[in-house]
Write a structure and sequence with these properties.
The chain has three helices and nine strands; from the N terminus they run βαβββββββααβ. The two termini are 29 Å apart. The strands form three sheets. Strands 2-3-4-7-8 form a five-stranded antiparallel β-sheet, with helices on both faces. Strands 1-9 form a two-stranded antiparallel sheet. Strands 5-6 form a two-stranded antiparallel sheet. By secondary structure, the chain is α+β, with helices and mostly antiparallel strands. A hairpin with a 2-residue loop joins strand 5 and strand 6. This is Peptide deformylase. Its cofactor is Fe(2+).
């Protein structure tokens, strides 16, 4: 297994819809194993294949609940259904999120509180995940990556301007920008 470089916001693979996985091959299994290793090294709670430069509809996730119970898996060719988002501004304390493709920053973003995700696992078996709260946020965030959407693309105008300033200051926002967890220092 290997820790893979994570693409940063300007890389074109992050801004284009990913392609469905046609067949689960040894290459796909290796990719998923590398994605888990990269996600854990970052550390993150989710990682989509486009974030490591692979334009396929795959994402991994991991999260421990309040009791420390693990929740971890992979979804291939996911479909997402969600409850409508509550209107209003997001709560900066309870609804802020970050992204490994815009590392080191967090911004408030309103998301649906409940989702249903279907797809398949590495064995080609059906996956059905119905979750709420932070788990629902993780599913929506990673699913967005598969459609070429970064969470910063969904921010309000004020936060979007802040994102642009940060990206310019750090030299991000251009094709090929990446960082490797455990190797690269991301301090500005």
């Amino acid at each position: 297994m290997a820790v893979l470089p994570i693409r940063i916001m300007g890389d074109p693979v992050l801004h284009s819809p990913a392609s469905p996985v046609g067949e689960i091959t040894d290459e796909i299994r290796t990719l998923v194993a590398d994605m888990f290793e990269t996600m854990d090294a970052a550390p993150g709670v989710g990682l989509a294949a486009p974030q490591v430069g692979v334009a396929l509809r795959i994402y991994t996730y991991t999260y421990a609940d309040d009791d420390g119970n693990p929740w971890r898996g992979v979804v291939i060719n996911p479909e997402l259904w969600m409850r409508p988002t509550e209107p209003g501004a997001p709560d900066p304390d309870d609804e802020s999120e970050g992204c490994l493709s815009f590392p080191g920053e967090r911004f408030p973003l309103r998301r649906s509180d409940e989702v249903l995700v279907t797809g398949i696992d590495l064995d080609g078996e059906p996956v059905r995940i119905q979750v709420d709260g932070w788990r629902a946020r993780i599913m929506q965030h990673e699913f967005d990556h598969l459609d070429g959407i970064l969470y910063v693309d969904r921010l309000d105008d004020g936060d979007w301007k802040t994102v642009q300033k940060i990206a310019r200051k750090r030299g991000w926002g251009r094709p090929g920008s990446s960082w490797t967890p455990g190797v690269d220092d991301l301090e500005a």
